[in-house]
Design a protein that fits this description.
The chain is 71% helix and 0% strand. The chain starts with a helix and ends in a 9-residue tail after the last helix. By secondary structure, the protein is mainly alpha-helical. It contains five helices and no strands.
Length: 139
C-alpha cells in the first residue's frame, strides 16, 4: 500500500508540474524573465523525476530531492515577486500613501500571492514520496 501512495504522490506532483506551466502560458505569464522561472523549475522537476525513474541509481534520487528543494525555495521568491508587484501598483495609483496603508490591498491584489505555492505543494508531494524511498520505488 505504501508503494501505491508514493506512486500517487509522484503522479499528482508531476501532473502539477505539467499543467501549471500550460496555465501560466495561456495567461500570458511570459512578459519578463522572472516570469519564466516557474517554467524552468517545472521543467527541471519533470526531468529529474524522469531521469530517476529511468535509471533508478541512488544519485538520481538525491538529484530529485535537491531539485524539489530548489523548486520549493523558488516559490518563496514567487510570493515575494507577486507581493512587490501588487505593492508597486497600489503605490502608483495612490501616490504619497505609506505602504502600511495599502498593505491589505496589496495582499488581495491582481497578482495572487499564494499562486506560486502550488509548485511548492507539488515539490513537497514528490519529496514526501521519495522520503526513505530507497528501493521501494525502483523502476
Amino acid at each position: 500500500m505504501e508503494r501505491w501512495y508514493r506512486q500517487f504522490l509522484i503522479v499528482v506532483g508531476l501532473s502539477t508540474f505539467v499543467f501549471i506551466p500550460i496555465e501560466l502560458g495561456m495567461s500570458g505569464h511570459t512578459e519578463e524573465f522572472v516570469q519564466w522561472i516557474p517554467f524552468i523549475a517545472s521543467g527541471l522537476a519533470i526531468a529529474s523525476v524522469v531521469i530517476w525513474r529511468i535509471s533508478g541509481k541512488p544519485w538520481t534520487l538525491v538529484m530529485v530531492k535537491g531539485v524539489m528543494l530548489s523548486v520549493c525555495a523558488t516559490c518563496f521568491w514567487g510570493i515575494y515577486e507577486h507581493f512587490i508587484h501588487n505593492l508597486e501598483f497600489e503605490l502608483e495609483i495612490r501616490p504619497g500613501t505609506a505602504w502600511t496603508d495599502v498593505f491589505w490591498s496589496t495582499m488581495l491584489g491582481a497578482s495572487p500571492l499564494l499562486a506560486p505555492g502550488i509548485l511548492f505543494l507539488a515539490g513537497i508531494m514528490i519529496l514526501a514520496a521519495t522520503k526513505n524511498a530507497g528501493n521501494t520505488l525502483k523502476p
